[in-house]
Amino acid sequence: MNLLTRLVSVVVLLAAWQAAAQAAGSRLLPAPLTVATFIAEEAARGDLFHNVGVTLLRVAVSFGLAMVLGVLLGVALGRSKALNIALDTPLLVVLNTPALVITVLAYIWVGLNETAAILAVVLNKLPNVAVIVREGARELDPGLEEMARTYRFDRRTWIAHVLVPQLQPYVVAAARSGLSLAWKIVLVIELLGRPDGVGFAINFYFVQSTNVAAILGYSIVFMSVMIAIDILILQRLQAHVRRWR
Amino acid sequence: MSGAGAESPVLRVAIDRKVYHPASAEPVEAVRGLAFAVGAGEIVCLIGPSGAGKSTTLRILLGLDADYEGRVEPDPCADSARPGMVFQEPRLLPWRTVEQNVRLAMPRARRGRDLDALFAHLGLTPWRGRYPGALSLGMQRRVALARALADAPRLLVLDEPFVSLDDAAAASLRGLVVDTVDGLGMSVLMVTHNVAEAIAIADRLLLLSARPASLVAEVALDRPRHARDRAWAEATRAALAAAHPGVIAE
Lengths: 245, 250
What we know:
The complex is a heterodimer of chains A (245) and B (250).
Chain A: H1 2-24, H2 32-45, H3 47-79, H4 81-95, H5 99-110, H6 114-138, H7 142-150, H8 155-193, H9 198-209, H10 212-241
Chain B: H1 2-7, E1 9-20, E2 28-39, E3 43-47, H2 54-61, E4 69-73, E5 84-86, H3 98-104, H4 116-121, H5 137-149, E6 155-159, H6 167-184, E7 187-192, H7 195-201, E8 204-208, E9 215-220, H8 230-243
Parallel strand pairs in B: 3-7, 3-8, 5-6, 6-7
Antiparallel strand pairs in B: 1-2, 1-4, 8-9
Helix pairs in contact in B: 3-5, 5-6, 7-8
Membrane topology (chain A): Multi-pass membrane protein
Protein name (chain A): Aliphatic sulfonates transport permease protein SsuC
Subcellular location (chain A): Cell membrane
């Protein structure tokens, strides 16, 4: 039933798009079939796989780095009052700096290279993860802490069975909101200073020929990949984490 | 009984003074001159009005608070002194099964040990693989009791263990505690504000004053937990209430 509702909504969306494209009759709003044709051609050339692959790799590396560093920082902030006070303002500054500014500065200061690109995504994303996980580290159940101390839990047992399970929902939430943020930033970064990737391709087709079919085609393919990752990996992870409820 | 206890106490407490220093208020003296011992095989109940410093005393005995003047033997901060503790709330790890909750609280080297008899004795065998959330509060308390007993401590510490249970569940858990500690030759220190409950299982009652906590009276009961005489229990409670109106309310 659920699946059916989803399918119907997709069909309705496609039908509306088709109707709008027919009414407009312009190459600035191509029909779904035109976009599908472009995707097929781009895939046959191999460009599609190359660009999507490169972008995915950038998302994976920067997302992974931002998650690991953000979780460590978030736990430290939640556990140490002094550290939290010291880093609260810098965190707020980075959180409120536009992604574009961080990206441009990274390219200027580090150079137009892969390191700068990854650094820019990590810097954009890390404060979000840290702030969400900090909440989790603050909400640790004091009763369980007392229990763990009374029963002399060793460090390994405490981390695996007391700390991590309490942080898991926050980490998964940070991952889900963070993944969509990361790939949007990666596209901007590619547009501004990388010679390949989905962001580069979209910019290329925009500047060269205002090829809306290409722009939509790339967006749809990449969005589909990210939604699949969310559904197949992250949502299952979330269900697994909540299994005891 | 208290005589036998004094010969080889499992726990000897002498807290001269415990003061809290809240950040934005006057210091609070929670305990002043509280001394008692718990003998081998003895069931001792600490009774006092709420806010009397019972929890403070417990935190010191569990090694959670080392900032006090006085002396507790064996040193509560030593690993070997770890008592079996049943907190007021079950404080189970909701993301681990009943069995994992019990085993994780044991020292790593002994976690693999056979606990069939313990689970069977506490009626927990069918629940070993379940998560605590699937259990009633009474059953969760049993799991907490299993966790406390699993490593065979010399001393079992209970903090209001029967609170918010219905009468039947409280009576059944009380019976289990008494049978278990008698069977294993363990000592018990129970903290409660419920006099009737204390009279039902204690060898000795220690009555605490309001804050700062100190010992008001010590009452030895003659193994009342085998004499399930309600009239006697009620008379004892009434006599205590008349003698110590500040400590025993109602």
